[in-house]
Amino acid sequence: MTTTMYTTSVPVFKQLLNSLSAILTKAEAFAAEKAIEPKVLLEARLYPDMFPLCRQVQIACDFAKSVSARLAAVEVPAYDDNEQSFAELQARIANTLTFIDSLTPLQFEGSETREIVLRPGTPKEKKLTGQAYLSHYGLPQFYFHVTTTYAIFRHNGLDIGKGDYMGAY
């Protein structure tokens, strides 16, 4: 059996975005139970020079949608980065899931050799094959931001574990 670009991307993004949504639900309940202002958690960071939790979730969604779109050869949807609440982050995740659910395996055919150009026309322009883009750039970036979100919540006392991170698969 051959592994397709679709099966190594979209289901992975869906699994971890759904687990991220479930973790956000737990975090919102945790904040209410402990009388923690939600903004405190949403602006939390692991270190002062790192992005806050809200931005980590936004970027995780950005990678899920942009990687999927580029591999499927469709336009990357644009989202405003203005989420400031648990509900708004949940909506962003839901929008991302809706978008990636709209893509079909057929759209990914041949994407492993398709040229993906990042930051076209800039000094930082980088050209990759679809396979390299997914394996060496897109998935690692996505995992980093999902993991950092998880770590910020754990650091702030949310009782979650590996099962919460992994979600249903």
Could you please describe the fold and organization of this structure?
The two termini are 20 Å apart. A two-stranded antiparallel sheet has the order 1-2. It is built from six helices and two strands. Helix 1 (10-33) runs antiparallel to helix 3 and helix 3 (53-72) packs antiparallel against helix 5. The chain is mainly alpha-helical. It has one domain: dinb family like domain (Four Helix Bundle (Hemerythrin (Met), subunit A), Up-down Bundle). The model has no long low-confidence stretch (mean pLDDT 96). The chain has helices at residues 10-33, 38-42, 53-72, 86-101, 130-155, 162-166, and strands at 115-118, 126-129.
Can you tag this structure with a few keywords?
57% helix, 169 residues, 5% strand, single chain, mainly alpha
In a few lines, what is going on in this structure?
This protein is mostly helical and 169 residues long.
Proportion in β-strands: under 5%
Query: The biggest beta sheet, please?
Result: 2 strands, antiparallel
- Going by CATH, the homologous superfamily would be dinb family like domain
Overall geometric form: globular
Uncertain segments are: none
How many structural domains?
A: 1
- The SSE string, one letter per element, is HHHHEEHH
Strand order of the largest sheet: 1-2
Number of strands: 2
Tally of helical segments: 6
Mean pLDDT across all amino acids:
96
Percentage of residues assigned to helices: 55-70%
